[in-house]
Amino acid sequence: MPLKDRVVVISGVGPGLGRGLALRCAAAGADVVLAARGEERLAAVAEEVARLGRRAVRVPADVTDEASRRRLVATALETCGRVDGLVNNAFAMPPMTDLVDVDLDAVRAAFETNVLAALRLTQLFAPALAEHAGSVVMINSAVLRHSRRTFGVYKMAKASLLALAQSLATELGPRGVRVNSVAPGYIWADNLKRYFEALARRRGVPVRQVYDETAATLDLRRLPEPDEIADAAVFLLSPLARAITGQCLDVNCGEWHH
C-alpha cells in the first residue's frame, strides 16, 4: 500500500477520472479529500471510498473561487491534520475553435480553471506539503503531443499547465516537494463512450466498430481506462517515485511516443 495512512487532496472529482483517482488512492492506503462543485457526485464517490476502508472528506468547492479554495485547504488540514499529496484534476472544456477566431474571454475562462486554479491550490497547499515531503500531480493531456485544428486553446492551456508543473518542481524541490504531470490520451469512460455512440449512430455502425477502429491506431490495441490513468498518479504520489520530479508521464496505450 504505497500511500498507507497518507492524505491526498483531489480536485475535480467526477464520475470518470476523478472517481478513479479517489478509489485508486484509497486502495493504495490513503485517506482522500474530495473537491468538486457537485455535492451528489462527491457523496457517491465518498461512499465508495468508505467501502474500501478509508476516510473520504467531502468539500463542495469551485476551484476558480478564492474563498472556496481557502475553505478546501482549511477543511483538509482541520479534518486530517496533514496533506501529503495534491492532484490537480479540475478541468473545464476550452472553446474548440480555431485560434484565429476564438473569443479571448472564453480563453481566459478556460485558463482560470485549467491553469490558474492549479497554481493557486498548489500555492495554498505548499506549506503543508513541505512538512511531509509531499507530492503534486497535475492531470494534463495528450493534446501536448499534437497540433490539430480547433484544439489550439486546449493545447495552450495544457502546455501552460506543463510549464507550471516543471517550474514548480524547480521552486518546491528544495523544500522536499515533488511536482509531476500525467498526460492521458483517450480515457474509456462515460464522456468518450457517449461520443463514440454518437459517431456510431451518425455512421450507422456498431459502437464496437468505432472503438476497434480507434484502438487499431494504438500500440496496445485498446483504450486506457480511468483506473490505469489513476495508477500512474498513485505511483507519482508515492515513495516509489521519490527521485522523480518535473516529469510528464504519458499514459495512452502507445498512441503517442514521447
Protein traits:
single chain; 258 residues; alpha/beta; Rossmann fold; seven-stranded parallel β-sheet; 8 helices; 48% helix; globular
Question: How would you briefly describe this protein structure?
Answer:
This protein has 258 residues and is an alpha/beta fold. It has helices at residues 17-27, 39-51, 66-80, 104-131, 152-172, 190-203, 207-215, 226-237, and strands spanning 7-11, 31-36, 56-60, 85-88, 135-139, 178-184, 248-251.
What would you say this structure looks like, in words?
By secondary structure, the chain is α/β, with parallel strands linked by helices. It folds into two domains: 7-187 and 225-251, Rossmann fold (3-Layer(aba) Sandwich), CATH 3.40.50; 188-223, no CATH class. Helices cover 48% and strands 14% of the residues. The protein contains eight helices and seven strands, in the order βαβαβαβαβαβαααβ. It has helices spanning 17-27, 39-51, 66-80, 104-131, 152-172, 190-203, 207-215, 226-237; strands at 7-11, 31-36, 56-60, 85-88, 135-139, 178-184, 248-251. It has a seven-stranded parallel sheet with strand order 3-2-1-4-5-6-7, with helices on both faces. β5, α5 (152-172) and β6 form a beta-alpha-beta unit. α1 (17-27) runs parallel beside α2, α4 (104-131) packs parallel to α5 (152-172) and α6 (190-203) crosses α7 (207-215). It is globular. 42% of the residues are buried.
